[in-house]
Specification:
The chain is of the alpha/beta class and about 375 residues long. α2 crosses α12. The chain binds 2-acetamido-2-deoxy-beta-D-glucopyranose. It comes from Vigna angularis var. angularis.
Length: about 375
Amino acid sequence: MDFNLALVIVVITILGIGLDGCHSKVVQFIFGDSLSDVGNNMHLSRSLAQASLPWYGIDMGNGLPNGRFTNGRTVADIIGDRTGLPRPPAFLDPSVSGEVILENGVNYASGGGGILNETGAYFIQKFSLDKQIELFQGTQELIRGKIGKRAADKFFKEGRYVVALGSNDFINNYLMPVYRDSWTYNDETFMDYLIGTLEKQLKLLHSLGARQLVVFGLGPMGCIPLQRVLSTTGNCREKANKLALTFNKAVSELVDDLGNHFPDSTYRFGDAYDVVYDVISNPNKYGFQNSDSPCCSFWNIRPALTCVPASSLCKDRSKYVFWDEYHPTDSANELIADELIKKFGLLNSDQGGAPSPAPDAAPSPDVAPSPEDQ
Ligand SMILES: *[C@@H]1O[C@H](CO)[C@@H](O)[C@H](O)[C@H]1NC(C)=O
């Protein structure tokens, strides 16, 4: 009896280990800035880049701030939902454990973070891309300790990796005279420095086992409300847009080179510059009414810098391209995500392309409270 029971337990244990090794789930590891942050900065108590106050998150779940720098979903949320991947929790979320990571992946994205360590220094606390990769190495150690090296290697090889940074390296570094990089480099040498750094980081991720990688390009960052308000004419700042286009071209070439260099890996580059530029130039064509000012603003004081409880909200959030001075609304993110999915051919060529059930974050501008009744 005892022997049989012991045997059963041994068999189950062996099968259990076998199953762990064979059936690890496909999850995402997200590296990014405020466009992808889902709560890391909320747990960095000294960070000045926070989305921890109303009205951030108003169109998602219970409507309370959740650390996303928008009213609803991020682009990465939507792409993950549409391709059937679980939404990875923020690395600093207290609920994150080895088990949670095996089921959902992790999101290391941090508002204010950049490709360069020195980017966003005035936010005091944030994770740069180097730091995010360092945290990922810690995650790998944790998972290896939990399921063993073999199963962990397989788990990390099958994972999907998203790298989406760069705008802060311009907006909160090179284009700001308070930063050393703005007077140390010129457009060309700064771009070489930035792309060279990103190349090392992407190669490091490959050496750590990342095999399926998506790198996001930049949008027309000269057209974010903050940049417009800083320009004297109210128009988009051409210099910033030109830098974004140069960056996108260089990253697209880098991603192609890496794909050739590492035939065991899939690299995709996705930028939605053109479609976002078109939305900003012809908002009505896409169902938007406003593409030059933030939905959440401090009455008529501009730039508002961040959305705060005393701010006033636009009447219909689904009609605004921008949520605050920097970040798109849920509706604009949806448009960007759909464009990227189309470019990646995600729903056609990938397995499991069935759209996941409707996200829980559809904006409901009609019922959500508005601090202002205009
Ligand atoms: C950036 O910071 C990380 C620590 O987060 C460090 O390991 C790395 O060496 C730094 N990179 C440079 C170029 O200073």
